[in-house]
Amino acid sequence: MLQLFLREPACDENNGNDDSYKRWRSLLDELESVIWSLMSSGGQSEARLWLCNSLSGISSINSRRQCDLFVNLLRSKPIKWHLASQLLQLIFENQPQKVGPIIAKKSYKLENFFKGNPRRILQWFSNFAGSGDFEHGKGAKALSQFAFVNRDICWEELEWKGKHGQSPAMVATKPHYFLDLDVQRTVENFLEYVPEFWSSNEFSESLKDGDILFIDTKYFVNWFTDLMYKEELEELWDVIEEFLMEQSFSFLCHHLLIILEEQDFHLFLDLIPKYLKPKSESIASGNASDWLEIVLSKYRGSSTIDQLLLLNAVTNQARQLLRLVREEGSEEEKEKIRNLVFQICDSSSYTNDLAPLMEEVSKRKPLEIHNKEDCGSDYDGRSSWSPKHKKRRKHKRKRKRKLDSAESYEDELVDFSLTNNRRDLQSKAGDWLLSTDGYSTTWSS
């Protein structure tokens, strides 16, 4: 059983147990070091993903505040190219019609988009309707409408696949004749000889719903990041703010935080306390995000990101941490963890303290934060624990067994009665028990 302090507990120097306390704390520090070594062995990417998942559960940030939070992050220096690209990608995928009007107003810039690129030309302009279809596709419709309205200046630029061309009168009565148009050569002619088309109402109208974004999304992401940061287009920033307000905080965290550079992620953690709704430090709910909000509200960059990652893993991602230890830990590391746990439980100076604490924890919800100074449960140096809130609920637990080809995993009931001997934590010879957030499992050596 790991005891977690959100700040270092105060110890009465005159209580006669100072040496025992220092040894007990030293063992906890050593256990922390082993766990952190396992967590950081893979570059901390998994631990950071756990923290992002926990952050996504925060519910006290309203839509206006979450918008301000991410906009401030986007506008901070240095320029957040990766974050902006990911956000634009989300807008394109979910609400392309929001940015379509911006493209339509700058339709003349798409000359370079199509120039020298037959694939893009054919994807956008070759969707003419047959005799049984209702109407041409957007690009084909723009091309045909402009050709009819401006036939005196551009009809001769239309290239046909047959031996002879088609007259405007003939095509007007039989629109399916456009199926015989050589689209690639025609558009290439328009690029060279009909510049009026690219700023025309017909072409602009075809772009307003944003469907053209899917012809080459990467191209438009690059273009729009330039509009954000180089041209500082306010219309685009308005679209971004509207999108940020419409999405849930959970959605934004899951899709945006994972791509942040380390420095930018630190900045996000520094910014978020300003946007959290003030919350009482007395929390009696099972919502794991409550304690995280309290911790973040006091986070001012004084704690390192490593400490926050470790704190979140131990208290809020216990099952994932246990899986990581099982899968990534060496036999030597597992043995070291087991020995440290036994030594911590056998600390004679705290024999009378751990038992009532663990018995009380066994009756609580998986996560319960009490109204204590600095958000923590303080050890008062006089062998007493005094939480202000107690909720006792009886929970029935069923033993579950999952089998696969390699090993079996078993969830067992935990007996927290430690009055006689803490080594009773062992459910059977050769096994030891790790229990966090109400979830427990035996671990065979």
From TrEMBL:
Basic and acidic residues composition-biased segments: 369-381
Ranges annotated as biased composition (Basic residues): 387-402
Q: Where is this region: Disordered?
A: 369-409
Which PANTHER family is this protein grouped with? OS01G0897100 PROTEIN
Q: What is this protein called?
A: Uncharacterized protein
Q: What is the lineage of its organism?
A: Eukaryota, Viridiplantae, Streptophyta, Embryophyta, Tracheophyta
